[in-house]
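Fig. S4 source data, part A: sequence.
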Amino acid sequence: MAKLNILFVCSVNRMRSLTADQIYSGDERFNVDSAGTEPSANVRIEEYHLEWADYIIVMERMHRNKIRKMFPESYEKKPIICLYIPDVYDYMEQSLIDLLQAKFEQVYRTEIAPLF
């Protein structure tokens, strides 16, 4: 079975999306990448990220809205799923890891895996 390309997105790509990228980087189900929506992001989201991704996983609704504004054509073509994880965690904080895994695995089981 082919790996799915999963893009994790938060604001500055330093805490939430970077943690998700790190914890899923060795997962045999996925190729993962991460980016941020803000100009100051470690890696700022670009069109090529969206073209590459099979699924875009955002941490907050505002990230989905920024993608829609920045890349309206790609926004219409790609599934964007929000995990609703607030920006209150540090990079690789155990409670963030636990929350990311619980929420993303739920999304994977209910919204992604049934399609494959």
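Fig. S4 source data, part B ends here. Residues 72 and 100 are 27 Å apart (CA to CA).
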